[in-house]
Design brief:
The complex is a heterodimer.
Chain A (H helix, E strand, L loop, with lengths): L2 H12 L5 H8 L3 H13 L20 E9 L8 H8 L4 E6 L6 E7 L2 H12 L5 E8 L5 E2 L2 E2 L14
Antiparallel strand pairs in A: 1-3, 1-4, 2-3, 5-6
Chain B lengths: L10 H4 L12 H5 L4 H9 L6 E2 L11 H12 L12 H15 L9 E4 L1 H13 L5 E6 L5 H7 L3 E6 L10 H5 L6 E6 L12 H14 L2 E5 L24 E6 L12 E4 L2 H14 L5 H13 L1 H24 L12 E2 L10 H12 L1 E2 L1 E2 L11 E4 L4 H19 L1
Parallel strand pairs in B: 1-10, 3-4, 3-5, 5-6, 6-7
Antiparallel strand pairs in B: 2-8, 7-8, 9-12, 11-12
Helix pairs in contact in B: 4-11, 5-11, 6-7, 6-10, 12-14
The chains are: A alpha+beta, B alpha/beta.
Bound molecules: pyridoxal-5'-phosphate.
Amino acid sequence: MAVDTLEILNILARDARTTAETIAQMVGCSVSEVTEIIKHCEDSGIIKRYMTVVDWEKAGVERVIAFIDVNVRPARDVGFDAIALRIARYPQVQSVWLVSGGSDLRLAVEAPNLRELANFVAEKIATIDGVTGTVTHFLLRRYKEEQVLFVDTDTDNRLIVAP
Amino acid sequence: MVQQRSGEKSNNEAAGESEARLKSLSHSAATIPFSGIRRFFDIASKMEDVVSLGVGEPDFATPWSVRESAIYSLERGQTTYTSNLGLPELRREISKHLERLYKVSYDPEKEVLVTVGVSEGLDLAARAILDPGDEVLIPEPCYVSYKPCVSLAGGIPVSVPTYAEKKFLLDKNDLASRTTSKTKAILIGYPSNPTGAVMPKDKLEDLVSFACERGLYIISDEIYDRLVYEGEHTCVASLPGAYERTITLNGFSKSYAMTGWRIGYACAAPSIITLMMKIHSYTMLCAPITGQKAAIEALRHGDSAVADMVEQYNQRRRLIVDQLNAIGLKCHMPEGAFYAFPNITSTGLSSEEFAEQLLMKERVAVAPGTAFGAGGEGHVRCSYATGIERIEEALRRMGRFVESLRE
Ligand SMILES: Cc1ncc(COP(=O)(O)O)c(C=O)c1O
């Protein structure tokens, strides 16, 4: 992949709202080159989606998030994929990863309250054929997500004009 | 002593003795001008909603691993003086660092002095080299401290102009025409604050051979060495003939975003470092230990943080230069540091007027070129050590300002 593409991806990963005009000036190429590269990345699935990191708690929204470790009996031919994708299709499931260590899959699951989350795990996940066990860890507090610290940071307190 | 209020009789007078007038303060200190940046700071700091392109320090916080190692050293109670030269471990790291980057070898035992920023390094270098009346050639526009440091050491700063048309590079002929029998040293700072100029290797070789021909010292402030976007930084001391006459000054403020830690270093031949260390031992004793501990970590594990910052500065550099040119302020592409130095003569204003009116009308702070010497007239310094959004906002305001001048 050309250096330009990686640099553009880095810029967008830092701030997805950076316009093609700005990016063109930042990397030193034309606006049409930038739009073309971005379009190519979107079309080929290198760029999955543009999203916003929200502090929901600050926005007054109550939600429960849990990380669920799932043990799975891998199936012939498809290994973990079939079960992983079955789980992944639920909208409550934010992320699914195959991990090393004591469990096989790790999920991030979201629900409006504790009861719904518990029900979801008990009814939908634990009952899947091939799932042999689950361990649920509730998220208590976020400190950092997607490179963003969830604490109020200081404002720029440098001198306004300095040598 | 408690000051007497006027009108009240002092005890001395009551006792019939007359009190002599307090003698005047140091003439040499009083005659050194205030920095041209100070005035703008005073105005700007009283205003609200100012977008500043006037800041000469990184907007990044010091990399976390560096901050963390300082905290660790504080937890362990490492709060003492260090040796005058600085922590041996830090001097070894500095020596290895310069060897790795520039293939210059300095003996950490005798040729490396840890200073309180490059600021102190400049002062020590001037004091170690100069006797009263000695002249120092300084290319202009230049960093605000160079001339005062020379003057305070009893020397005479001699400005050597550099020109926008020649990318603010120092020309050997301009040096020659200002050299006298009193000339003792050349003080340079590349990459340059405020012009962003980077001296190519062959130009530096010319400069070194010039110094060799005349028996001059070279003080080389290389504080922006890691912030070079095109080509490579040349460490002056690495050039043939340079080592014995060159004082290499560098530090952590810019490359590692560590301005507040106050750590820099000077490297030179043992005879020079010995003198600098002697002055340092009486005036400063040593650089702060917490900063020295942090600096060790910066040298050991700071490279990826530097690379990340450099990439972002580089993007801002291209952006700001493009946009300055787009609003009609002609701006060459700076090759290093984090300053753009556009020409503002098309507005019909002097650089002071431009900076002041821009601040008053649009609340954008820039530094007038003249703050860096008379040779800076016709330019302003715009720092891009600030986020993309802020730069774009500043440029929108500047565009409006420039437009308003045309009407
Ligand atoms: C060219 C140059 N030299 C030296 C300094 C001072 O650096 P330090 O923080 O190491 O004292 C600065 C800071 O702005 C600078 O721009």
